[in-house]
Amino acid sequence: MSRQRVEASSAALAHWSSPDGDPPTIVEGEGCYVTDDEDEEYLDFIAQLYCVNAGHGNERINEAIEQQLSRVAYVSSAKHNDTREELANELAGIAPGRLSNTFFSISGSEANEAAVQIAREYTGAPKVLTRYQSYHGGTYGAGNLTGDPSTRAALEPYGGTSTGKFLPPLPEVFDAEGEELAERAANHLEYVIRNEGMETVAAVLMEPVGGTSGAYPAPEGYFERVREICDEYGILLIADEVITGFGRCGEWFGIQTEGVEPDVLTFAKGVTSAYAPLAGVLVGPEIARNVREGGYDLGQTFGGHPVSCAAGLGALKVYRDGLLENVRDLAPTFERELRDLEQYDAVADVRGRGFLWGVTFREGDEPFVDPWVDPDAENPVETVVEEAAKRNVLVGTGRPATQVICAPPLCAGREEIAAGVDALGEAIEVAFGRNDENA
What are the Cα distances from residue 286, in Å, to 94, 292, 373, 403? Predict the structure, then answer.
């Protein structure tokens, strides 16, 4: 059987591609803006993939990369390197509580897989529990940790790992809000642990604030109760900070906005402001000792790449120079601007923290389209994203695509926030129409 030649506009195959997709070709970036190959400038209101936290074209990060290249470009991940060690020490200084040692990786998916392996070896238990409708990566291991049905549907026919799922602490899931929601959701997690067999559960893995699953924060008191449950049953709490880390929520790490110390923390994306691929797993002294004494006969060629670690050191310096404070100062303005969109009947909720926000769309109590039930249906939320792009503002859909995620670089100011939300409002009008009272 001969292969048919497929004509394509690009030799590079895009990730998360769609037959109907036509993404722009980005060739330049500066601050909160990117420019395509037709010289069209866009406000990057999604920081590409929630990762260019320091903004595009930062010279301090570029210089750090160049200096490392002039010294040594690559050192095996099985050996020590001064730049790698310096970054590990810097991370220990900003990490929550007693987290003090870093196992470097390449991407968030691989960091989460490494964290799970470390947790299983430390506890001797096989299972890891994650939220239904979560996202922890798209590789085979991390994809099975992921609770997003579309990701699992693509991977699970070909194999799986020992994972279990529990429900996220959302009002529509437990028909409750506030303290009652926190209690019901935490009690549900405890039920799942007991039902799975507490001795078989190594860890609970969660994002402090939902990422692509909707930028939702947990109700007050939820994480404190989760911490108590994990301690009671001897289970590790892993914070997935791939999106929420490095200032995105107003602190170095999102879990610090909850006042809870995890046993393990994974990171990626913002550690270098996405200027070079880097990720890792932060653990405390006891788990680090277990890894050292027992050995860890697994690794990745490019884990802790010196050039990436240099980019990380440069990014940390930029973050320290007022970016975290900028997020804390402007988060109320960001929230207020977005909540003005609730004037539209189609907007069901605005939720988030810091510079990570989601806008959800529903008709009454149901989404306009359930893309997990009917992936081929015409989705007005996708129209919102397209119309925002026509207004030179880049946003993205969440998982499921019943929501839009807004996550600009941390250097965004009031002008960028206003421009992004204004474009989003205009896009909502086109996709859903204006309310009668606003006509």
Answer: 19, 10, 45, 41
